[in-house]
């Protein structure tokens, strides 16, 4: 980093990536690529293990209805180091809220999902019956303690539902009432309810 312009060109890159890019032999290059892969796997494992702890907390303490959609066929396709990890690997949770009739159950559901969201996951709130009233949905999100930084970094979004809830209800044959959420993991999608 000191003897080249790598610090200016790649300020946010792994040190092993830099070493690989500037390696003078193929053997040296491959050695640093292997180290990068090892670090990435370790990071991924730690993220998944943390998310597993969050999901278990939801299941036991918060009594959310979280279904694992893992199948043996899907598991067999995973690399060995991923197959040995816990089953829950959250990527994104889409929450569907009745903006005009959000009661205590709805509020607690939203707050619990915000509180237990891991740094690696995304959370999208879709407001049904919001009449495209931005002020209404911002007030609800503020009431739940939504963090402005999360919104600006797109880790949490607030949106007017434009038919997304209907589409996912059909897809999952879900006939119950709002609120509900659809959690997407590396193994598929599952329904989460209060």
Q: Which structural traits does this protein have?
A:
194 residues; elongated; alpha/beta; 5 strands; five-stranded mixed sheet; 9 helices; 47% helix
Describe this structure in words.
It contains nine helices and five strands; from the N terminus they run αααααβαβααβαββ. It has 194 residues and is of the alpha/beta class. Strands 3-2-1-4-5 form a five-stranded mixed beta sheet, with helices on both faces. α2 packs antiparallel against α3. The longest helix is centred in the N-terminal third of the chain and has 35 residues, at 26-60. The chain is elongated and about 65 Å long. The termini are far apart.
List the helices and strands and how they pair.
Layout: H1 6-9, H2 15-21, H3 26-60, H4 72-77, H5 80-83, E1 90-98, H6 104-115, E2 122-128, H7 134-143, H8 148-152, E3 156-160, H9 164-172, E4 180-185, E5 188-192
Parallel strand pairs: 1-2, 2-3
Antiparallel strand pairs: 1-4, 4-5
Helix pairs in contact: 2-3
Strand content range: 15-25%
**Principal-axes shape call:** elongated
Structural class: alpha/beta
Please give the number of β-strands: 5
The portion of residues assigned to helices is 40-55%
Write down the secondary-structure element order.
HHHHHEHEHHEHEE
Mean pLDDT: 79
SS summary, helix count: 9
Note the main sheet: 5 strands, mixed
Strand order of the largest sheet: 3-2-1-4-5
Low-confidence runs: 65-78
* Distance separating the two termini: 51 Å
The rounded Rg comes to: 21 Å
Summarize this entry quickly:
With 194 residues, the chain is an alpha/beta fold.
């Amino acid at each position: 980093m000191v003897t080249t312009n790598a610090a200016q060109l790649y300020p946010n890159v792994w040190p092993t990536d830099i070493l690989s890019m500037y390696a003078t032999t193929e053997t040296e290059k491959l050695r640093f690529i292997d180290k990068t892969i090892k670090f990435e796997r370790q990071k991924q494992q730690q993220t998944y293990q943390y998310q597993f702890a969050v999901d278990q907390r939801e299941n036991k303490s918060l009594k959310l209805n979280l279904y694992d959609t893992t199948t043996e066929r899907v598991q067999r396709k995973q690399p060995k180091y991923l197959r040995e990890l816990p089953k829950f690997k959250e990527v994104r949770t889409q929450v569907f809220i009745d903006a005009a009739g959000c009661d205590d159950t709805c509020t607690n559901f939203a707050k619990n999902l915000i509180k237990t969201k891991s740094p690696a996951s995304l959370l999208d709130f879709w407001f049904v019956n919001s009449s495209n009233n931005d002020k209404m949905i911002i007030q609800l999100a503020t009431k739940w303690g939504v963090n402005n930084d999360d919104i600006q970094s797109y880790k949490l979004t607030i949106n007017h539902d434009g038919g997304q809830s209907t589409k996912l209800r059909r897809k999952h044959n879900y006939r119950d009432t709002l609120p509900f959420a659809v959690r997407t993991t590396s193994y598929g999608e599952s329904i989460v309810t209060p």
